[in-house]
């Protein structure tokens, strides 16, 4: 990505510098995490000695909280985080997940027979029609 056309914009330069600092800080934090906790964790901020991370689920957040002393000890070895005294973890599920297409299973012949049998015992006409319609969806 090129920012040449925005070369004179101090606001953009400041924003890019902050983004680069955040990226660098996140890589240092992820490096300090134990191997089994690196996936699904993001660095959010570090202000006034409070390090804030996000985890993709509550079990990962609990694991981080359980091992927070070990994590903070590793994090403090980096100059940027030498004054960290508190660790806070937020749960933030991923925004986008690949949803598997739900495949409807066809109705078995046995289930269709049971639906027809139940329709025969039902006094309600509308319910009987619905059950018979469902029974007609049997796989061949």
Automatic annotation (TrEMBL):
Pfam families linked: DciA
Q: Which domain of life is it from?
A: Bacteria
Protein name, as recorded: DUF721 domain-containing protein
């Amino acid at each position: 990505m090129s920012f040449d056309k925005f070369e004179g914009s101090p606001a953009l330069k400041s924003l890019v510098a902050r983004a680069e600092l955040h990226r660098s800080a996140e890589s240092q934090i992820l490096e300090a995490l134990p191997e089994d906790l690196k996936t699904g964790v993001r660095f959010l901020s570090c202000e006034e000695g409070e390090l804030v991370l996000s985890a993709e689920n509550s079990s990962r957040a609990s694991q981080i909280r359980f091992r927070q002393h070990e994590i903070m000890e590793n994090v403090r070895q980096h100059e940027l985080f030498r004054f960290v005294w508190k660790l806070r973890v937020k749960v933030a599920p991923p925004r986008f997940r690949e949803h598997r297409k739900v495949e409807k299973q066809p109705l078995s012949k046995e289930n269709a027979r049971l639906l027809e049998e139940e329709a025969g015992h039902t006094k309600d006409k509308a319910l009987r029609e619905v059950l018979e319609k469902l029974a007609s969806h049997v796989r061949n």
